[in-house]
Amino acid sequence: MRRRLLPVVAVVLGALFVAGRGAGSQGPTGVPAVAASSETDPGRLAAQIGCPVCHGQRGESPLSNIPSLAGQRSAWLEARLQDFRHLGRIGGEGVMPRYARNLSDQQIRALAAAYSLDPLPVPPRVVQASEVARGQTLYEQGDPARQVLPCATCHGPTGGGTATPLIPSLTGQHAGYVAYRLGVYRHLPARQGEPEVQAMRTVARSLSDADIRAVAAYAEQLPARSFR
Fold it and tell me: What is the dihedral angle through the alpha carbons of 44, 46, 47, 53, rounded to the nearest 10 degrees?
């Protein structure tokens, strides 16, 4: 685990998660306690710690600032949960560190594997085909005139990611969250190190609001094209 990524994880991936509404008994910090019986039962574990409240019953988030997890790469999910757990154990703030800090390695692996196997969300009907087409061009080709790199360079031609586990899959992610994340990246301060985060910051700052909407609309349609 590369600890240099930890300071930005809470900002980039979980700063606005909803807190303290999961089922089950509550620990001293308001976070549901994790029972030993859920060690290898990801469904029971998810219910106990409240994952469905924010991420949906089957990993399909209903909220624009919270990602869908269905079909996400298990290695990426596991890495993010490990990061959140470390932040929680060193006193990091935010909902995800508080939820993850008491998870065992086995529970993290079970949750990541379970969400990765959930069926991808069915994309909505395309309303603005021209916007999706513009997004496809930016995703696949970028915009050389403005030095905008193609999204496919890192996220793969089908949105499923590359061999690098720190690159998430975009397949099945809803447009609201993709647009929200790009907006967050656009306003992140410059930092030394953290190349993946800085790459996203550079790309996001080169995109207009219309570009972001177009890329997000295209990303949401990837499952309809059987990209997996």
Answer: -170
Total-model pTM = 0.74
154 annotated to bind ligand: yes
Tens of pLDDT along 43-59?
Answer: 778 877 889 999 998 89
Task: Indicate the residue among 62, 87, 117 that finishes a domain.
Answer: 117
Q: What is the pLDDT of residues 192-213, one digit of tens each?
A: 667 888 889 999 999 999 999 9
Does 1 appear as a known binding residue?
A: no
Token pair 């900002």 is found at: 11
Query: How many structural domains is the chain composed of?
Result: 2
Task: Determine the structural domain holding residue 144 and report its residue range.
Answer: 129-225
Q: Is 96 annotated as a binding residue?
A: yes
